[in-house]
Amino acid sequence: MRRLYSILIAMMLLAPAHPPRAAADDAVNPDADFKAFRDYFTKTFAKVPLDDFVNGPYSMDAELRKQWQAIDDFPPYDFAVERGKEMFATPFKNGKTYGDCFANKGIGIRQNYPYFDDNSGEIITLELALNRCREANGEAPYSYVKDEMASLTAYMAFTSRGKLFDIKIPNDPRARAAYENGKRYFYTRRGQLNFSCASCHVQNPGNHIRTEVLAPALGIVAGMPIYRSEWNGMGTMSRRLVTCNSQTRAVPLTPQDEDYRDVEYYLTFMANGLPVSGPAARP
Amino acid sequence: MRLLLVVTCLLLAAAAAARAASTQADFDAALAAAAAAEKEAGALKNQWMPTEQALAAAKKAAAAGDFDTAVAQANEAEALAKASIAQAKEQQDAWKAGVIR
Amino acid sequence: MRPGRKAAAAGVLFLGATLAQSAYAQTPAGQALAFDRAKGNCLTCHDIEGGNAPGNVGPPLADMKRRFPDRKELAAVIFDETRRNPQTVMPPFGRNLILTKDEIESIVDFLYTR
Predict the structure, then answer these.
(1) What ipTM score was computed for the predicted complex, to two decimals?
(2) Which of B87, B99, B100 sits opposite A194 (nearest CB)?
(3) How is domain A2-14+28-74+168-282 classified at the architecture level of CATH?
(4) Signed CA dihedral, B24, B27, B33, B35: sign only
(5) How confident is the prediction along chain B (101 residues), in pLDDT tens digits per residue?
(6) pTM across the whole model
(7) Of B76, B87, B98, the CB nearest to C87
(8) Which residues does chain B have within 8 Å of residue C86's beta carbon, measured at their own beta carbons?
(9) Considering the domain A78-158, what is its CATH architecture?
């Protein structure tokens, strides 16, 4: 699909039609999408302060917020932050560290992920970058969904709290194709239950499925990774996507599949200007 | 009256034949059809869990020699896979209607 | 089974009143299907009298006979509401083979008691 979009956009760019750039922008317009998306949430939930959307279901439900505030004195993700910090301080067998793989030694950079890598032409999420760092240093990759990966991302998010998401979509047809593919993934219905991501997180934030309060799509990535009581533990963005797919009775994709990375790129771009709130606790 | 009796007997015989126990060959054919449909759903990145569950149940029943159940589950898997294919094809354009504008 | 008994009583009344349109007009079966998480799982999104911890994505399912005097219309909503409203989030229970037509009829019988 990505390749198809790339080809289409490349054709538009190469075509000698009059304003070729305008044609491309008509097809993929992240800035216009951003404005419409932001307006939808701020108008639908006019009483919710913009920065509060990063608190997911708590921004939608006063009762749930009270319960959250009651437990937040002893956040259940603390152990993951501590563990991640230790892992960051522990060198690999070759003597290098996670910090050597990242800008600013990996501190306070969560808000810049995912990004478009113009060498490979693909989207690099924080989780992918961490495993590539391990592999580049001769270490086996971790599972993407929990445990060590959640600890590492929890620590990196923790050192970035309050920093504003700043995702860039460069003027490269491959980046724009990745963005558009992420948007397609977000709105596509799937699974036997026929839900898209938007079915719950655009059409029904604040509503309840059983007793669970649905989170708004705006800022939904900001709290990752999360300690989820339902999971009895930590989970990464990968875990969240896999779980969402299972709940629609779709066979989940492999963590860090291109579609998953692209939808994370799309959603994090939509969160631009909102503060990092992860790691976070969710029911 | 006699004609009615003959017709009734024929109908009963036909019904019995239709209900005859399924064979390994029936199962192989049903499974091949289901697997082909599920493969197509996979190419569209749109497989469903219930399809996988029905396929697993079909294979398990066949392994236990229960080919009636095995064929029924394989047919169910094929129907589910086809529904997931239809969904994927319909969504190739339909997703655009849900985009926030 | 406490709510079931009441439902059964209502179902019997309904049966008598409508000359038993379907062989599945046994309310307990319809209620079980409606409340089963692997089947109708209606409570995830709808409040229904007799069900615990309902969601509120969809409207409460009450007064159903007045709202859907034509049972075919109610069955069609359950079978595939996207035909009438393409943006609905209600799963197409019939089209996607979550429920058989008979199971949908059984759930309609149950909903008519609510």
Answers:
(1) 0.86
(2) B87
(3) Orthogonal Bundle (1.10)
(4) negative
(5) 566 666 665 555 555 555 568 999 999 999 999 999 999 999 999 999 999 999 999 999 999 999 999 999 999 999 999 999 999 999 999 999 999 99
(6) 0.86
(7) B98
(8) 94, 97
(9) Orthogonal Bundle (1.10)
